[in-house]
Amino acid sequence: MTTWIILRAAGIGAFVMLFLSVAWGLVATTSILGKRVSKASATLVHQFMASAGLLLLAGHLALVLGDRWVKFTWVDLLVPLHSSFRPVAIGFGVLAMYGTVLVLASSWARKQIGTVWWRKLHVWAVPAFTLSMLHGIFSGTDTVRPWMYWTYVSTGGLVLFLLIVRAFTIGLRPERAARPERATRPEPAIREERVPALAD
For 69-108, what is each residue's pLDDT tens digit? Predict the structure, then answer.
């Protein structure tokens, strides 16, 4: 019973941290915060939330494997639609896990893969959140509880609202301060040598 409670708490915690990470990412890339939060601070908070969510997700998966009520295998947790217990709902969770890992890994390797590929892979954050929410709604036993039901409604509604705000404020995003140019050494002045005038 204790394992069942902890694994549910870990799953809900992972969902909440994923929501906070996605919501913060959307807020930080619109004009809502303006210039009040630096880019470095916004990135640090964003990555902390995502990393915490990934750790809670790992704990959720480990406890699911040890659960005696529904016996899952590693294949069930890695292959969509393989589970005999609510295969579609569990499949949503598997795809959400892959999306979350992909987005977080691309953030860690941003310098190696470049900004262009990082942006292309980072757009999977919202689909990963959506799949995670569908997984919780259709496979979680707490969905029938009012507090969990309204958690899904509020988080999903807020992400949708932030997506709309971002769509309408693309041209109004605050400009980042330009990087200071590196100081260059002044070129040595070329001394003009005087050529003696030729005598007539």
Answer: 778 999 999 999 999 889 999 999 999 999 999 999 998 8
48 Cβ contact list (under 8 Å, min separation 6): none
What is the DSSP secondary-structure string of 81-107? Answer: T--SSSHHHHHHHHHHHHHHHHHHHHH
Measured between alpha carbons, how far is 128 from 194 in angstroms, rounded to an integer? 74
Which pair of structure tokens corresponds to residue 91? 């499949």
Question: Cα(51)–Cα(49) distance, rounded to whole angstroms?
Answer: 6
pTM for the predicted model, two decimal places: 0.80
8 A C-beta contact, residue 142 and residue 8:
yes
Nearest residue to 99 via CA among 132, 145, 75: 132
| 3-state class (DSSP) for residue 188 | coil
Residues 6+ apart with CB under 8 A from 47: 104, 107
